Each structure stands twice: as structure tokens, then as C-alpha cells.
What does this fold into?
Amino acid sequence: MHDLLLGTQGLSAAGWLAMFTHFMMLSLLAVGGAMTTAPDMQRFVVHERGWLTDAQFTGSVALAQAAPGPNVLFVAVIGFNVGGLSGVLATMAGTLAPSTALAWAATRWGMREHPSRALRAFTTGMAPLTLGLLVATGWILVAPTHPGGATAALVTGTVLFMIHTRLSPMWPIAAGAVAGLAGWV
It folds into this structure.
């Protein structure tokens, strides 16, 4: 039971605080959802801290995305894999508290300033930022399984498909699943 609560990493108080504050900072950068910050989460927990491997990180994201529920669940799985239930608490509190407060304040501002030029400029400016963050996330998630040029081909192909068609994103996901089952990728 002790390992489930505290995790197997045996993080120090400084480690827990670092994880909480890093996820809190990422929460404020999560334009387009928590998934857009996955590349920096991966950099932090895999490369900087060594708490997880690339495969464990990618597996955490895949498991959470396959489960029903909100997209942000992958943060809880990463936290659990780093430090058990305490890791879930650190990552989820760090992720949800600041973004919830910011969303509440922004909604109140948007309701007051609805017809304003500043609000339209803000929302127009966020679109390319969100797209860039999502492409970076796709790159990070594909890279461990498709090194080199295959990563670029998969990410570029998916982006071009989505830009040039009005088809549902479920079609490239289904195509990827078929390609994986057939052993082509």
C-alpha cells in the first residue's frame, strides 16, 4: 500500500514540488488543451528528471487516450507512473488549479467584452499557436515508434490531410489503426 500511495520513485519533497510547479506552469500554457503541453511534460519527466522512459511516457498517453473520459486523464496516468497516487495528486492539482482559475477569469472577461476588437484579435492569434503545439505533440508521440523520416512523414501527412479535407479526424485515426494492425507502421 505504501508503494501505491508514494510511488516507486521515492521522490523527495523537492521532487514533488518541482513536479507540481512544472505542471502548474504548463497548465497556463495549455492553449488548446492539456495535450498541447505533452512535449514539455515528456521533456521534463523523461529527459530532465529521468522519472519515466520514452516508452513509459508514450504508453501513459496512449492508455489514457484509449480510456473513456476527458483528454486530461493522461496527466493523471503520467503522475501515477511517476509517483503513485501522490503523483496523480501533484500532476492533476498542478494542471487543473491554475487553468480553471484562468478559464473562469477569461470567460468573465469575454462575456463583458464580447463585441470588442481585442477579443477577436486574441482568439484569431491563438489559432496558429494551438496548431503549432498540437503538431509538436504529434511529433513527440510518434518519434519513439517511428525514428527518422517516418516521423516527419506521418506528422506531415496527417496535418496536410486535415488542412485539405473536411473529413472527420476519425478517418486518419482509423487509417493509422489499420496500418498498425497490418504491420505497415
User: Anything to note?
Assistant: The helical segments are 2-6, 13-29, 38-48, 54-66, 73-112, 117-142, 149-164, 170-182.
